[in-house]
Amino acid sequence: MDEDTSLLVIVDAANVVGSVPDGWWRDRKGATERLRDRLASEGLPGRPDPVEIVLVVEGAAREVESAPGVRVEPASGSGDDRIAELVAANPGRPCLVITADRELRRRVTELNAEVTGPRAALGGRP
Questions:
Q1: Residue 2: pLDDT band by 50, 70, 90 thresholds?
Q2: Quick one: pLDDT at residue 117?
């Protein structure tokens, strides 16, 4: 069985959506769908293909569906726990977690993931 060596990008949807004060709190699902669609159309700026993008959603955004190029992973509990589980389930595979959450950054760094902030998923746009 071949090991997947493409970059696994795991996006903390709630954290990234919450980093932009654009009224997301009025429609969490819609804001998450916009993030998913941006990632599906633009990929991850500055990162060469191939990448696998996983958008971890929680709460009201759990109803968001996957789109070509972006797999949506609903968290049954904590989104942070699901993100850490996904990193742990892919030992030896390069992983990039996009979040500003300090505790989550610590947890996934201990699992050998690389971490960057929300702007990476927003193409440098606020």
A1: very low
A2: 94
User: Cβ(19)–Cβ(120) under 8 Å?
Assistant: no
Question: In angstroms, how far is CA 86 from the centroid of its own chain?
Answer: 11
- Which pair of tokens denotes residue 13? 């949807």
Q: Nearest to residue 58, comparing CAs of 101, 93, 113?
A: 101
| Measured distance CA(98)–CA(55) in Å, rounded | 10
Residue-wise pLDDT for 76-99, tens only, equals 989 999 999 999 999 989 999 999
Question: Which two tokens mark 121?
Answer: 């998923």
For residue 16, the model assigns a pLDDT of 95
Helix pair angle (102-110, 79-88), 10° resolution: 20
d(CA 12, CA 43): 15
Query: What distance separates the 2 farthest-apart alpha carbons in the chain?
Result: 46
Hunting for tokens 């968001």 — which residue is that? 64
The two tokens of residue 110 are: 């201990």
